[in-house]
Amino acid sequence: MKRLKQQLNSDHIPVDLLIDILSLLPRKSIDRFRCVWKFWGNILRRPDFTELFLTKSSTRPRILFTFKVEGKLFFYSSPQPENPDDNSTLVATRYHTSFPEYVPSYRCSTVCGLVLFYKAGKRKVSVICNPVTGEFLTLPKVLIKNKTLPEAKAISRVCLGYDRISKQFKVLCVISSGCERPNTLQVLTLESGKLLWRRIQCEFHFMKISSIRGEVCINGVLYFGARLGLSSVVVCFNVMSEKFGFINFDKDMKGEDDDSYLHGRLALFNYKGKLGIREATDYFDEELVLWVLEDAGNHKWSKQAYELPPLVRHERFVGMTGTGDIVFMPPFPGFFRLKINCLYFYNLKRKTVARVNIQGFEEFKDYRTFDTFLGYVENLKFT
């Protein structure tokens, strides 16, 4: 071992080559190597290594599972299969990290390895954590200076975005009264070193109240549903420039009305690097309707419709993998306390469904909150 250390300390193996080799290791091996030898530990903590590891992690996306059990937060992940076979098995492994019990789990989203948890209501709290490193940040409270908008009546929503060019995570907070008063927009940059909210402006007034579920960050643009006048729209927030825009729905798109009997029937997702919307047509869909944004400037959408196999008509829509499979999971596990032991991968080209079993979290006998995220990228960096 001593001789090996001397060889590695010499000029025989360039540090750049070592960084490239070590970046191929799985995350668990990196954790062990950090503790084995100080020389390796220093390399594995270098910014250029963490950036290279993130780049290579993006080529091997995973599926992230989050649980809230008896007030405690648990994270598991498994490889995300490219061509899953029917009745194959995924093994989910746990990230052995712990977080305070006050971390909410009602609303959460993940971007580039970080997870944002948000709780609305009187006791608003926002927490960002990294399941891989175990680090977390409780975001400061957003101060409302508008005296005409009492804090108790303010409706706020936070969203997490990431821009790969500037390599910055930003949190956007939208505060609205739910009426025609101008909303308040504030941004917090994680890499700034100071957790401070900054006021920003938007040329048009929108309310972050909509039947459109979820938000998604694609290529440095954060998309979420909102109300603009009497219509529902998709708001676009450029993470780097901090500029806003909006996209109208296609005239044939149904379900954008908040008074619809199917509240939340439209869901945003990443469609192979484009913005996609899944339109639910009924509580138990026989048809899968997808809308894909083809031209944001001209508000142009394309529509795709597929007949759903009976096996997944009652299942919950999760999203799309990078290879184009639509993923479903058993419906509403937190409410009915169902056990999540499988995922369904629907191949749009072959029109086939593969039932993939999941092993790893059988220990949980009871849990109320469960979420599944596709395309999770392990990130060794936090802020």
From TrEMBL:
The record's section on SUPFAM superfamilies has: F-box domain
What Pfam families would the database entry show? FBA_3
Domain F-box associated beta-propeller type as annotated: residue spans: 62-377
Name the chain's protein. Answer: F-box associated beta-propeller type 3 domain-containing protein
